[in-house]
Amino acid sequence: MFITIDGLLKICAAISCVGLALGYLLKAVKALRSPADNMTKKLKRHDELFANDKARLDNLEHMVADMRECMMLLLESEMATLGHLEDGNHTKMLMEKKEKIAKYLYEHAVNGGVRNENLT
């Protein structure tokens, strides 16, 4: 069986048509999937941003708690100092507050703000 040029051209035209049809079909599928793919990318990006924001908020909460503790130490020390100035006593209370402050400063200098135990 011999293939004529006319038959060869018909086979090539058929292959070309099938290839062209597949190309358009793939473009159509890609166009239909594009909104879903874009939404998935956006959701992944939003998840990353949310995780980053959560980490920053957790860090801020830790810092606020540390600042609150520091303020309490300052207020307790001020009360002890005022009590001492008022009547000349309370030297033991002044020493306790001084030790508390020294312990607080040491822990924050050595551990970078990470506390191992409660001071109160």
Give Rg in angstroms: 38 Å
N to C succession of SSEs: HH
Give the total of beta strands: 0
How many helices? 2
Structural class: mainly alpha
Distance between the termini: 101 Å
Shape: rod-shaped
**Poorly predicted sequence stretches spanning 5 or more consecutive residues:** 116-120
Helix content: over 70%
Mean pLDDT comes to: 85
**What's the oligomerization state?**
single chain
Q: Beta fraction of the residues?
A: under 5%
Fold and architecture overview:
The protein has 120 residues and is mainly alpha-helical. The chain has a domain at 32-111. It is 87% helix and 0% strand. It contains 2 helices and no strands. It has helices at 5-87, 91-111. Helix 1 packs antiparallel against helix 2. The longest helix is centred in the middle third of the chain and has 83 residues, at 5-87. The radius of gyration is 38 Å and the shape is rod-shaped.
